[in-house]
Amino acid sequence: MRPRRARNLCLCISKFIRSKATVGLFAAASLLQASAAAAHGFGQRYDLPLPLWLYLFGAAAAVVVSFIIVGLFVRGGASRTGVDRRFDLMPHGIGRLILHPAFGLVLKLIVFAIFAVTVVSGFIGNQDPYRNLAPTMVWVVFWVGLAYVSAFAGDIWSLVNPWRTIFTTVERLSKRVANRPRLDYPEAVGVWPACLLLLVFSWIELVYPSPAEPRHIAWFATVYSLLTWVGMALFGSETWLQRGEVFTLVFGTFARFAPTEINRRERLCVLRPFAGGLLAGGPVSTSMTAFVLLLLSTVLYDGLLATPQWVAAETAAIDLLGGGEGAALVARSIGLGGFWLFFLGAFIAVAAVMSRFAGGLCSACQMAQHLALTLVPIVIGYHLAHYLLLLLVQGQYVVPLISDPFGFGWNLFGTAGYRIDITIVGARFAWYTAVTAILLGHIAAVTLAHLKVTELLPGRAVALRAEVPLTALMVAYTCLSLSIIAEPIVERRAAAEAPSAALIVRGDALLPEPGTGRLEAVGPGKTARLKLTYRLLGSAFHDGTKMNAADFLYAYMFAWRWSGPGEAYDPAVAAATAPLRRALAAVRLAGSDTTSKSFRVGDFNVTRELLIVDVYLAVPPEDPEQDAAIAPPWSTVPWHVLALMEEAVVRDWAAFSPDEARRRGVEWLDLARSPTLNARLLGLVEEFGATGWRPETLHEFVGAEEARRRWTALAAFFKEHGHFLVTNGPYRLKSWSADLTSLEAFRDMSYPLGVGSFDAYAIPRRGYVTGITRDGDQLRLTADVETVIKFGRSYRLERQPMQSLAPDVLKRTAPECRYVIFDGDGQAVLAGAARPGENRGFAIDVGGKLADGRYTLAAEIAVKANAMNADIRRYEFAVP
Questions:
Q1: Across all residues in the chain, what is the average pLDDT?
Q2: Span 349-365, pLDDT tens digits
Q3: Phi, psi (deg, nearest 5) at residue 755
Q4: 175, exposed or middle or buried, with CB in 10 Å at 0-12, 13-18, 19+?
Q5: Residue 700 class from Cβ within 10 Å (0-12 exposed, 13-18 middle, 19+ buried)?
Q6: Can you list the positions of beta strands (E) in 673-827?
Q7: Can you say how many angstroms the Cα of residue 871 is from the centroid of all Cα atoms in its chain?
């Protein structure tokens, strides 16, 4: 849901209280609000102080300059530069402590307990990802946090690996397991098992529809545990851990960058320069080369999924595959594998060019194997850029979850009441951290590659010549990664069919029955003119209940039920929902995706259920924004509140509209200010809570237990707040009187909009029409817009002509000319919105759209969608 809709919600609530407008009509009208095709909220983005192209150029130049500096001043390999230096910690207390058996045992027991609790919580705990330890522990603490510990501290995983701990313990307790003959591991297989498992793990993270569902995580952990133990039993624990256990390979690869090297078997504990472990040893295997490139590609693929370019490509691929969620899974799976193969192919191609530049002294395969580990700093840099803020913000959920890991309402350590501080870091910090991490990662990679090539090839000139292609690849990687992190997260919209094309509606799609609202399958043979696919990010309602499919479906049911024919009829509801009912051909819940998305560059997207909804319309496609506003599957009022209002009307306690209230001699429905009605409604809510009542039309979608929870939550909300006006969003009715209404703003972590989404409204900017001229069939407008000049904590608004604005400033300002044309009788005959043309002015084409006569144009300039207190200019003209 975009900021405009949230603002409309706030204004509608206020208007409701002050004018006694009915919530029923408000709920029905919420289906008609203008919105984007995807009910998907996006947080504030950090406006870069310099154009992106300048950042890309600067970063690429920094990589090139670092190559030149390293080439000129760094001579010799690792031994001559001191990168292979070691400082033995064993004579010191810290080294003896790290290798002490008791210290290791304590760490192993702690990690084993965390592992066990995580798996058990996934199976038996609350399945809400934010009330269960498993999602946060696996995707944030383990996958992100442990990677950073490995890269910047050392290989702690090899010590605390719970699968190793459990297997070793079983070996010690069971001679049958310990003495079982082991199979010889084929050397040719290399680390391909770990490579395949990393691909599967990445698929679960990036493609699988429900990676954050606790029970799914528990099953995945169980299957992987069995697979790991079978591999250890067949080939020996150390052999399988080094070849097939994916996390040992991942964290061990990251740990090669760390400043420590620890080997408990050899009683080795030393300090070394950062990245020293990446230069040690000879070339890696072909499978290990592929493994490193897979690590690199999956992190970038995660960011690529949110870019407009990928969304467009994915949408086209889904259409080619026949549409639907199955096609989306196939498209993303192909994309994941293809991205890896693309990166692997690019690296091998560059290695082949390097081999040629080196005069064939080293083959392309050998060159790639020698240089594979030099890419690890880039992997770490990308990992920091994409996931650091996820760890800092979402990782805070560990604090309350350690006291209540199963979501049962416990408070074992007194931390269950901790509230997440999502302002711990800001958008500026996010961007500069990402840029710095990526840039330093590439510079480190260039340096390591130089040291490797210098050792590999004879002669400094040959080595420098061979490094040029690799440096060019680093520059390309830098620009690609910075472009990805600078792209906005975009909504996904199904491609509209051509106006002349007829769409076949799926037979299982639903349409409400007039008079009852009961959803019936449309069956075979029904056609539509337009299909929109909404990816609906649900949020919690004010009473704490969670939005689900029943809420948006019941809004459609309500519109059809109260629009006749039948006893349940209100003319105001019928009038408000008429455009919806004329246009909607069918609606279908295509699937759901409980997913965890990371926040990036200031955006923070919490875990929630993503509902994929297909809406078929009987109208031809026109403007995407307007098409999406006809019948969006979004309700600002939950089904149980709508049903409660319906019961009040059916029992003749109140009416939805003032005309019906006067005709029937009852109250005009008011969920806040009528003590008599509220007392009756509270009795109904308590009765429904005891019986688990829900409307008959919802029996297929809502069980009695869920209904009981809904009514219980609504009763608790009323007792706390004194009214039944439950909606969603970060504004809630707090108090009211005859003259004043107070709304309470609060932070709702489930709300789709991210941090800072309403910042644009903190300093509302205005636009001004400065001139209107006639040019044939076009009306041309020039305009000024306000820009914000900030200094410290202060600011001022400066009015500037649009022609004087820099292109990036004009893009961020997003001016729009909204207009209405009236005929001589004052009737609106044409309306729309125009965006700036190449001359930075606006053009309204009236050719062939108006009959002969005199007309008046009323126009305003909306800056960043702000239409409040607009400056409206009028212009009279005649046709012809």
A1: 82
A2: 999 999 888 887 888 89
A3: -65, 135
A4: exposed
A5: exposed
A6: 731-736, 741-745, 767-775, 778-791, 794-801, 815-822
A7: 37
